[in-house]
Amino acid sequence: MSLIIRSSAIHAAGCYTLRPIRKGTLVVEYTGPRIHKDLADLKYEDSPTTYLFGVGDGTMVIDGHGTAMFINHSCDPNCETEEIDGRVWIQAIRDIEAGEELTYDYHLYDGDDDEACCNCGAVSCRKTMYAPDEIHRRQRAAARKAAQNGKQTRGQKNGRARGRRTAGVR
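Now predict its structure.
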């Protein structure tokens, strides 16, 4: 495959194709060392940027090294990821023109409380790289927290002490 890494309007550097790619083509493999997710969490505890890709049930991740780590997120992607025999491939989901930036939807499913803002510019942009299920989970957690804080504030205003409730984690 003829791919090149260069400056991207989406984020820093991006991966572009020099030749047309047909729909269904396995474009590039997501490569790098495989490590346990807990180790990756420790390794990148203070790092705002990672290139981790969850594989299998998500307990193992690929610590991205290589061309595929430069493929940016888009809410209107031209590629998707496919796990085949334990290997992760980037696959074209439509015909891609020469010179076009390769993108896939990251569908992030974990992370700290950061927003993981999306800069893809797509008309259908959801403004975050998190998966729709994860967005929903975070909205429910925020609503529970807001309700809890509202109850505590009302109780404090009325001079009554209220017990704290701990929101469940996943």
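The beta strands are 3-7, 13-17, 26-30, 34-36, 52-55, 60-63, 72-73, 79-84, 87-92, 103-104.
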